[in-house]
Amino acid sequence: MVTRYGVQFAIYYALLTIPEQCTRRFIQTLLHLGARVPRCLIQVLVQSYGKAEYQQRKQKGLKHDPFTITIQRIPFEGYVTLINQTSTLDIQRDSLAHFSSSLTHPTDLDWQKELDHHLFFPIPTHTAHNFRPILKLAQMDPMRYERIAPLFSIDPIARAALWQSILSVLFDEAFRTTPLTKERRQQLDILSCVIRRPLHTAKDQAVFHQAFADFFNKYPRGYCDQAAMDRMLNLLMTYVQPIDFSVKQALRLVKDVRSDIKEMLEKFI
Question: This protein's superkingdom (predicted)?
Answer without folding.
Answer: Eukaryota
